[in-house]
Amino acid sequence: MSVQAKNAEEYIASQRMAIQANPECGTSKYNLAVALIGQKKYDEAEEILKDAIEASPNLAEAYVQLGGIALNRGDMESCLNYNRIATKVRAGFAPAFGNLGFIYMQQGKVDEAIKNLQKAVVFNSKFVQAYTTLGNAYLVKNLIDESIEASKKALEISPDFPIAHNNIAIAYLQKGDKKLFAKHCQKAIDLSYDVAPEMIEELKKCKEEK
User: Fold this and answer.
1) Is the pTM of this model over 0.70?
2) Rounded Cα gap, residues 129 and 117, in angstroms
């Protein structure tokens, strides 16, 4: 029976011991790397993740973590490449498709973002961040009804997800539905989301019109 670690240092020590006992265990190396990332020891974590992949070439999670380290350094291309590899070593790996969608949105490649985000939510129907980013991508393409549907899906999964409330508020405003705009805009504000000043002004107008 395993004993749960009391803190991060103890957990890291236990994973190092596990690796010493079984140097070919990719999972132990992956677990150690994730703990090191939690401590922002990115360089060491990167090397251990590469060792984990050498031991377990199909460890898609390790590629995603390497992508996260690359993104932390501002290296979007490496982040994209690692996540692309993750989608190939494990079919239907939703986190990698979600990450690809997010990065493509950052790069302004909205069609590529939509394609990957659609895959992410097919492979994981509870992927709230992917639905939310998809809702935003549809907004950029002026696909208002599709944006509303994606945001609704996000809110079904996580009713207090502020970005989804913000996105759906924008979509309803574009449709001219002031009532639903005001409802979701106010909810985003209540959830401490940094709503655009223009939306706050529009919300004030809606309240004055009542």
Assistant:
1) yes
2) 10
